[in-house]
Amino acid sequence: MRYLVTAVKGNNDLLTLELDAQNEHDVRTHSDLRGCTILEIKLLQFGLPRFRRTTKFPVLLFSRELLTLMSAGLSLTEVIDLLVVKEQNASHRKLLDSLRTSLFQGKSLSNALSAFPGVFSEFYVATISASERTGSLTEALERYVKFQEQADVIKKRVISASVYPALLIVVGGLVTLFLMFYVVPRFSRVYEDIRGDVPFFSRLLLEWGKFVSEHATVVLGGIAVLIGLATYWLSQPSSRIWFMQTIQRIPAMGERIRLYQLSRLYRTLGMLLRGGIPMVTAIDMSKGLLAQELQTRLTKAGQEIREGVTISQAMDRNQLSTMVSSRLLKVGERSGQMGEMMERTSSILDEELAIWIDWFTKLFEPILMGFIGIVIGLIVVLMYMPIFELASSLQ
Q1: What is the pTM assigned to this prediction?
Q2: Please, are residues 209 and 181 in contact by the beta-carbon 8 Å criterion?
Q3: Quick one: which of 88, 172, 238, 288 has the most CB atoms within 10 Å?
Q4: What are the C-alpha distances in Å from 237 to residues 227, 229, 241, 308?
Q5: Is the pLDDT of residue 48 over 50?
Q6: Count of other CB atoms within 10 angstroms of residue 81
Q7: CB within 8 A of 22, min separation 6: which ones?
Q8: Which domains does the chain have, with CATH numbers?
């Protein structure tokens, strides 16, 4: 039997494992769980792998609650204690309880958070750590909440703009499959006696219908296998990287993806700089936001800044800026408000991306509807073409 196990390592790292065992006792004594505190054991039905996503710790909600309760006058330990009591998820409660224990032992919040690198990013821990040195934890939390909400704006726009096209594709695909696998095979039987008078393309379509009717199991099985292989292929990280690289080769799409990554980069750098993190350290912490090619450029820019090159020049040389962002960075260098200028740059890039998404959606939707209509209409016309030919011959 196959079990899903949620556990905590000795260093407070959360683990989610799938194990094969005869019973729960064998699970608890499994070698992979030595030194771990088991939180939950679930039996997976029929031994099938689990496809649903595990519930991640809601860092943004956690930050909002910290900000709200601390702004109301509660101390940090009182806030964490209250969050432990109200938490319903067992693994989340265990994490919060570990944070509370660390705080009672005299550790700082940033040290307590750093014990969970899989939950709290280096960026988040550094933000909290910098605020502890200046005594402005609530301001740091407020900046992080605002940062995360603004960072999600473009993602939400893309998702909302994708709903209608996705619905069109699904409905159009279902209609096409219905015609090809149900209607066309039945029409092929009707036209068997007049096959010699059927136009060429109609004959191809009807031959397909005949093949489907005679080998329905093989066709459906082949489609299921192709869907399974495609799902597995897309689940591989290397496949997703290749897919994104292919999209980036499309001139318009590639440039917009680059601007999206630059927007995230500038917003992250701006928040870290305003939180008191040095520029070179902030660059090292922000590399993970970018694709591999831009990571290499950012590393080179960081090295140039260490050698004394100005930020604006380093970004320009490594193609990590736009015309507007370059000017804003120069303003930030003169005024000493580099963090604010970077956040303004990110907002300008976000607005440019939002305008492009709206324009692309308005253009893509009618094109997609027209394409689906042409495909369905072509199938219908090819099915009825023999009737038109027969009517013409009778006249």
Answers
A1: 0.64
A2: no
A3: 172
A4: 18, 15, 6, 37
A5: no
A6: 16
A7: 1
A8: 2-47 (3.10.20), 59-148 (1.20.81.30), 162-216+247-395 (1.20.81.30)
